[in-house]
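Pasting as-is:
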Amino acid sequence: MTALGAARLPDPTTAGDFLRRLDRGQIDDLSEAINEMRKRIWKKNKPSFFELAVIDVDGTIAGTQAECKEGMDMSYKGTWGYAPLLVTLANSGEILYTRNRPGNRPSHDGCFEYLDPAVEVVRDAGFK
């Protein structure tokens, strides 16, 4: 919050509106910047931390009560919302990449384009 000059985080609907205004390339650039800092922080861990990196890629359903929001759709369960794709370092639960998708997307949709970059992040950080 200090880096943003904010006294508090915005309401979730305001934050969602802000994020929907960013294009995919901008969000990917932000993820890359965060991952560069993350690698510096990981260097402070013990050598055992770097033995194995488990990368988890999955989609989830993020339902919403809002109507007519850009990009949302109905999931196979009948829930209106989004189906964000999350690429995480399962060891620590840290999100390496994320991609917002309409609620009707299968969980694997778009995951392949993030696998190589995620592997590159953890290898550059020193994971075996």
